[in-house]
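Lay summary. Proteins are chains of building blocks that fold into shapes, and those shapes determine what they do. In this project we predict the shape from the chain. Here is one chain we studied, written as its sequence of building blocks.
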Amino acid sequence: MVENAEIKDFSPFPPIQKLYAELEYSRYSNPELGIYCNRPVERDSNKKLAIILTGFTCAGKDTVLDGIESTGLVYHVVTATSRARRESEAEDKYHWLTVRDRQEGETEDEYKESIKKEHDLVECDIHYVKVYGLPRKSLLVEGKGIPVIRPDINGTLTLHEELPKYGFLPISIAILPDNWEQIYKILLEEREGTLGEKNTRIMEDIMSMQDYFAVNYFLHNSRFKQNGMEGLERSIRGMKYIIEKYSS
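And here is the predicted shape, written in a compact code that computers can read:
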């Protein structure tokens, strides 16, 4: 557990920009829209498109998803979790199945396998002490657009393996902020939890950086104007660009 002392210096850690600098497939990138291609995806007309939206804590994943969902192109799938709903999360907007907590004497692996069976989950993982998973039926809603799943990076890696088995072509997009200081400030000022818990969250993200090289695209969600556009507007346009590239 990280000590209960505020982190003052992030310079010893790799900068976030290292993830999307000098990528092999940069010719497929669109920096004007904050899009950086890490692993291009070959279209497959026999599979349904599914977007995996991941990224660091407080990077703006929900805000970007809200913006692209309002276009009618996509819908946010119902997830399963043991985490309690936050006061800021309206019931009519953030739908999920509430799953039980781990029982006494139940190992972590036993717990995850039981939850997967109980709720018919495509994948299931434990993140920030709580369990998160994807019910298979959430991907099969007709007439609402392309499903968008919002897992952590571990769930993203699993979904890349599992979704094709269910007839889906996964496209993963990692939402990235400007820097570590920015998201740590949001964690400290706006998110619930103790200082130790918040320190643990950001350290988990820093330690997981290498795992992000498995995603298809990075999307820089800046808090500042870029190319004459507000950062959020650019991010929404960028995500729309990726979705239309594979759905057209």
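What the prediction tells us: Helices lie at 61-69, 108-119, 153-162, 180-190, 195-207, 231-247.
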